[in-house]
Amino acid sequence: xxxxxxxxxxxxxxxxxxxxxxxxxxxxxxxxxxxxxxxxxxxxxxxxxxxxxxxxxxxxxxxxxxxxxxxxxxxxxxxxxxxxxxxxxxxxxxxxxxxxxxx
Length: 103
Prior knowledge:
The protein is an alpha/beta fold. It contains four helices and three strands; from the N terminus they run H-E-H-E-H-E-H.
């Protein structure tokens, strides 16, 4: 958050992006709080995707998020005025980056 905030102070016109992987046991209100915090520091673009455990050595998936919940998070992010939001189970940080940036 501090880095995104710093970038906007250095160049307020620079487009900034962040992403979240969910399904690690976070509560809905925690996700929404993170969305609000990102907008407070001027983050423009957002990706939200499902955490998938790469191997048994990694942290386990706590919950598979429904497509409806991903859509709900997208609507909330758009209401918070993110200029571009990609939210879904297979969304990753570089999800359609060229199209997303030019949104």
